[in-house]
Amino acid sequence: RLTSGHVTVSQVLCELLEKVQKSFIRRMMGLNPRSMVAPLHTETRILPVTPRRVMVSLRYMAYALQQKESHLVKAAMLENLALDRDERASWIGDLRVNLGLIGIRDAVPMGSQWASPEWALEMVKQVEEGAWARLEEEISHSERLYLLHNRVAPKPRKRRGKACTLQHYLLIRDTNHRRALTRLLLSDHNLAVEVLRRKSRYREVVPREERICRLCEAEVETPEHAVLVCKGSNVLVSERESFWAEVNAGGLTEEEGLTTTRQLQVLVGSEEHVGKVARFVHKVFKIYEGSACET
């Protein structure tokens, strides 16, 4: 390791590690094994393994080039640069390939004149910013993740210790409530709009406009309909009235002129009341689970 002076980034190994990473995050968030990938990272602020390892390699390169000429690590890095200049297999060539795999092409020119600690650290920023930008773009183009589009950010609040980068709803203490709200936001729930989207053994995909609410049979069974609108169950109506009474007492009122989607985003965006929202969502899911989804 010392004389070869590199940190390897293998595509095959990274794919295996990312598989484990996704499995871990899904289990932590209470999602199913086939849930969408991008929110796993944007909601937890955990970078995928591949760009993360490329960033580690670039930081290692910056470290190696900052050492004295007599240092073996720097000597090994300069030898790799010389090999790359002669168009022979080297760690620099692997780095070029790995940057291409994450969408950054032509960033590593041939030769050694360009190599510097400053270049490597600047590339670290580009890799990180590019990774987050691609994830955010994937979410913005997903119809299923519409509740994450233009979301309402909670008001900044002072925290003790290190600032937390998790989305605020992932800090809800009650596991069942937290997972219910997470499933709602990430379209990993059992409401008709999601369940009937998938083909099953006994039916084809149901058009969205036909995924009617199993309780009221009046509108499409979406998260915002189930949480804020449906009157097909006396229990649900009663629980909703209690929920609004509780949040109204806390200073959050139902705003007029908002769509139900935006109203739900406003509720979720309230850091003070998000725990109450999650508890109510958990109750809503229980009510809907007690009634079979028509196929």
Topology pattern, helix = H, strand = E? HHHHHHHHHHHH
What share of residues are in beta strands? under 5%
Compute the number of helices.
12
Structural class: mainly alpha
Number of strands: 0
N-end to C-end Cα span: 59 Å
Helix content: 40-55%
- Main sheet characteristics: none
The backbone outline, from C-alpha atoms, is: elongated
Secondary structure topology:
Layout: H1 11-29, H2 38-42, H3 49-65, H4 72-85, H5 91-101, H6 117-140, H7 175-185, H8 192-195, H9 223-229, H10 234-249, H11 260-269, H12 274-289
Helix pairs in contact: 3-6, 7-12, 9-11, 10-12
Notes on the structure:
With 295 residues, the chain is an all-alpha fold. Helix content is 52%, strand content 0%. It contains twelve helices and no strands. The longest helix is centred in the middle third of the chain and has 24 residues. The chain is elongated and about 80 Å long. The chain starts with 10 loop residues before the first helix and ends in a 6-residue tail after the last helix.
Outline:
By secondary structure, the chain is mainly α. The chain has helices at residues 11-29, 38-42, 49-65, 72-85, 91-101, 117-140, 175-185, 192-195, 223-229, 234-249, 260-269, 274-289. 52% of the residues lie in helices and 0% in strands.
Keywords:
295 residues; mainly alpha; 52% helix; 0% strand
